[in-house]
Amino acid sequence: MTRLHDCFNAQDFAQVARRRLPGSLYHYIEGGADDELTVRANTQAFERHQLVPRQLRDIRQVDMQRRVFGCDLEWPVFMAPTGMTRLFHPAGEQAVAQEAARFGAGYMLSTMATTSLEDVADCATGPKIFQLYLLNDDGLNRAIIDRCKAAGYDAICLTVDCVVAGNRERDLRFGLTVPPQLNRRNILSFVQRPSWGLRYLAHGGITLPNVPTPDGSSSLGTLTSYFATKMEQNITWARVEQLQQYWGGPFIIKGLQSVADARDAAAAGVTGIIVSNHGGRQLDGSPGVLDLLPAIVDAVGDQLEVVLDGGVRRGNHIVKALALGARACLIGRPYLYALSAYGQPGVARMLELLRRETERTLGLIGVPHIDDLDRSALTHLDSQPVNRPVLLSTGAQRSGAYS
Fold first, then answer.
1. Where does this protein hold glyoxylate (predicted)?
2. Residue ranges of the domains in the chain?
3. Is 28 left (phi over 0), alpha (psi -120 to 50) or beta?
4. pLDDT for 166-222, tens place per residue?
5. Which residues of the chain have a pLDDT value below 70?
6. Active site (catalytic) residues
7. Is 82 marked as binding a ligand?
């Protein structure tokens, strides 16, 4: 079995997580919608943008501090909101929030979290943002915002790209159920992972303490079904403005991908937007978010803060996104792999590696402060000259001559 300090990147943690989780849970993290084209597009977009280093720069001190969404970050990264995190390891959301604070990053807690927003606020000292799914009952929406106010959250992040559920075929193929139940598609994978099952049972299963219900129900199956029926499918900009006013602090929209929507967000006066396709888990066939970023930054970057979510696996990915105008990046799957593999120590190791990679990349390209990053630090593969093979005459080929 791979030891913690033999993991050096997100893929290493993913391989260990695959060996430790039942198949349905691993593929829940890994998978996306339909053919998973957008999942792949998110990571492949970073490969097309290449870094152009500058030399003879003073990089004795590399400063990565930045204020984003009202949060003071030592490193412009937020842990993305992920649902049902304690399914993967009982340390769950609290472990991730604590390590985010220790490494100078921000943490975003999902409405579908398996730890209460109050418990997360009590255990973690770093910047915290609550991710809100809008329900069709404004009394319930206000109730959860009131809890965030009382618990001292820094901002509200409204996710708008889940008004229709994505078609996640891996969940069907591998028999994912909430709560986990044995069926013909998953029974073998659960039997092969007895340590996960014993750990899950030892900690009493999971609940969704941030899902507001009028009757106080705590059954996971009941909560998820109830929540699905209450999701608002008509989110309007007027509702966004009402929620902003009720909250009274930094307010963010997550899940925008078009310049037109970004302009509408700016007109609505939100603090910022997160350019995101939900990790490729909703609409398949949309572009990688990095490819969408420059046009959105050009359109609204002087009016609100733009953050990127999707495909980040390396510190150099973070640097590329910042160079294209993102104020910060969200990280999701990498910390879930690390948590699933090793619990809280795994999250610490993953964040340490990513932060070190980010700082190292800035030093290698000659940028001592992230505010000095701009698009001159990048080139795009499509803009590079094509190295075509030189066609040689027969005589030249025989003699071994080259042009």
1. 28, 133, 168, 278, 281
2. 4-383
3. alpha
4. 999 998 888 887 777 768 777 778 777 888 888 887 888 888 899 876 665 556 666
5. 1, 182, 213-223, 383-403
6. 278
7. yes
| H-run or E-run covering 379 | strand 378-380
Residues with Cβ within 8 Å of residue 245, at least 6 apart in sequence:
none
| CA dihedral (204, 334, 128, 240) positive or negative | negative
Residue with tokens 């597009």: 41
Contact by Cβ (8 Å): 14, 337:
yes
pTM: 0.91
254 φ, ψ (degrees, to nearest 5): -115, 130
Cβ distance 50 to 312 under 8 Å? no
Contacts of 381 (CB under 8 A, 6+ apart): 47, 48, 49, 50
Supply 357's token pair: 């990679």
Q: State yes or no: 128 annotated in a binding site.
A: no
Please indicate if the annotation marks 366 as binding a ligand: no
The answer to whether the annotation marks 168 as part of a ligand binding site is yes
With CA atoms as reference, report the closest residue to 132 among 110, 116, 148.
Answer: 110
Nearest to 243 by CA among 169, 139, 341, 170: 139
Residue in the structure block whose two tokens are 């929406």: 141
> For residue 80, which amino acid is it?
A
In 152-284, alpha helices (H)? 169-173, 187-191, 194-202, 220-230, 237-247, 259-268
User: Which pair of tokens denotes residue 297?
Assistant: 């930054």
Nearby residues of 118 by Cβ (< 8 Å), 6 or more positions away: 147, 150, 151
* Owner of token pair 């001592």: 368
- The answer to the question of whether 28 is labelled as a binding residue is yes
To the question of whether residue 340 is assigned a binding role by annotation, the answer is no
- How do residues 68-105 score in pLDDT, each as one tens digit? 999 999 999 999 999 999 999 999 999 999 999 999 99
CA distances from 216 to 117, 209, 213 (A): 16, 10, 5
